[in-house]
Amino acid sequence: MSIFLIRHAESEANINGRALSHASIALSTNGRMQAERLCTELPKIDHVIISKYLRTYQTAEPLLQKYKITSEIDQNLHEFSYLSERKCANTNLDDRKTWVDAYWAKMDCHYRDADDAESFADLYFRVQQFHEKIQRLASHYVEKNLVIFSHGQFLQLLLTLIQQPQSLSRELMQNFRSDLIHRPIKNTEIFLFEK
């Protein structure tokens, strides 16, 4: 049996919709259809772990209903929120482009945009903690299936550190940014966790 790592379905923010907050972004109409399709693409699911963000719950919802199970929220699984929540309220991708470019131009692992934003180091330590958790969980899913719904940037770093464990560094941050641009994880893309 398996542990599946899946990026949430297409959200309104993914198609340049305005977002009131990082956590409240909902799925698009297409995203809801992608979430439904997962019910036919995955085997029977025994447990689901999601982030505290609405879009992961909405992606999981068809599976939760199909198997009559409830989801577990993991506080480490949420997306990398490196821009200030207050500053980003009611903005879209176009509005945030200048701020995004300025953040990544610094390439400083410890830089925080504001007191309500994360540094790359914060993301790195959250990802490490979650990686340790799923390593511990792996023995419980020898005969069961677990689905973990998370986010593109979180999964990008998690998969990098699974494949090539490494310390926090500017080089890791640079490679991470390059991967986000050149090899982004698609909505509902599925990865198998292997210990």
Provide a quick synopsis of the model.
This protein has 7 helices and 5 strands.
Describe the protein's topology.
Blueprint: E1 3-7, H1 29-41, E2 47-50, H2 54-67, E3 71-73, H3 85-88, H4 93-106, H5 120-137, E4 146-150, H6 152-163, H7 170-182, E5 190-192
Parallel strand pairs: 1-4, 2-3, 2-4
Antiparallel strand pairs: 1-5
Q: If strands are numbered along the chain, what order do they take across the biggest sheet? A: 3-2-4-1-5
| Most strands sheet | 5 strands, mixed
Order of helices and strands: EHEHEHHHEHHE
Rg for CA atoms: 16 Å
Annotation, overall tally of beta strands = 5
Structural class: alpha/beta
Q: Any idea what the shape is? A: globular
The N- to C-terminal Cα distance equals 13 Å
Our count of helices gives: 7
Mean of the pLDDT scores? 96
Poorly predicted parts: none
Roughly how much helix do the residues carry, as a percent range? 40-55%
Which band does the percent of strand residues land in?
Answer: 5-15%
Please characterize this protein's 3D structure.
By secondary structure, the chain is an alpha/beta fold. The protein is 45% helix and 10% strand. It has helices spanning 29-41, 54-67, 85-88, 93-106, 120-137, 152-163, 170-182, and strands spanning 3-7, 47-50, 71-73, 146-150, 190-192. The protein has a 5-stranded mixed β-sheet. Helix 2 links the parallel strand 2 and strand 3. Helix 1 packs across helix 2 and helix 5 crosses helix 6 (152-163). The mean pLDDT is 96.
